[in-house]
Amino acid sequence: MINATHEAVMVDEVLENLVFKQNGKYIDCTFGAGGHSLEILKKLGEEGKLVSIEKDKSATLKLSSDFTEDDRFELIHDSFSNLHNIFANEEIDGILIDLGISSTQLDDPNRGFSFQSNGPLDMRIDTSKGLTAAEWINSATKKEIEDVLWILGQERASRKIAGKICDTREKNPIKSTKDLSDLIISCVFKRSKKHPATNSFRAIRMHINDEIEELQKVLEAASYVLCCGGRLAVISFHSMEDRIVKRFFQGKDRLNSKVEFKYFKEKFLKPTMNEISTNPRSRSAILRVAEKV
Ligand SMILES: C[S@@+](CC[C@H](N)C(=O)[O-])C[C@H]1O[C@@H](n2cnc3c(N)ncnc32)[C@H](O)[C@@H]1O
Hints:
Elements: H1 11-18, E1 25-28, H2 35-43, E2 49-54, H3 65-68, E3 73-77, H4 83-86, E4 92-98, H5 103-106, H6 133-137, H7 142-152, H8 158-171, H9 177-185, H10 198-208, H11 211-225, E5 226-236, H12 239-249, E6 261-263, H13 273-278, E7 286-292
Parallel strand pairs: 1-2, 1-4, 2-3, 4-5
Antiparallel strand pairs: 5-7, 6-7
Helix pairs in contact: 7-8, 7-10, 11-12
This protein binds S-adenosylmethionine.
S-adenosylmethionine binds next to helix 2 and strand 2.
């Protein structure tokens, strides 16, 4: 069953720390189900402007009248790593990046993101481009698969899983989320309540969608597009992404940009216990907001 809802995380914290100018110009780089965008629009004044970006075409198709009838809003189907090209010569007051995928995408078996239900092993955010997870997993070398599982998933059984994938696909290609999930379960010693395929599925999704490169590029682009004093808010869901954001704000591991940022109030914020109890998927969220100096 497709769960059509995605509950936006840390909304109050985002609004309080990001939206500081009533009639300012803001970008939501990850429109998803529009939860953050809608709240930003509510906080903006009549002269304010919000442009949202979304890589998944299907998320841009069924917009509610809250968006279609609001002249202050525009939605662009693109990758957020193109931010610099889309907003060349503009000065933006605030940018939000809410990383990962939405519950709507995760809960749709046809997208192949989840081991919780069976479906085609796709995992592409933009379904019009690139290799599906099945195409990649049935053609990559053992070493490539092992590296993805280890580097992006910190999966201790990466070597064993990669070996089993290569042995299995010689007889039968791996086509579905169940094929992959069953194979991983047979390789991983279950240590906790976490599903044994959690790390591997996340790693493969990140690889298929170039999520680390996309993040590095959007941070760099945001540093050019923001006005001085403009704010960048990033919500990440695991330590590798958060480390990239933290080091970027510290001026480390940059591609080119020399723009300086300073934290706005705390270095990072976590969801409240109350939010975690009503929206358990928020539990690993970490929000960093910094100001362009
Ligand atoms: C966690 S969800 C955002 C949810 C959203 N904040 C809300 O309130 O509904 C992340 C969204 O970012 C999109 N996305 C992921 N990578 C992207 C990229 N490189 N460029 C643009 N959108 C991207 C995903 O398709 C997904 O819809």
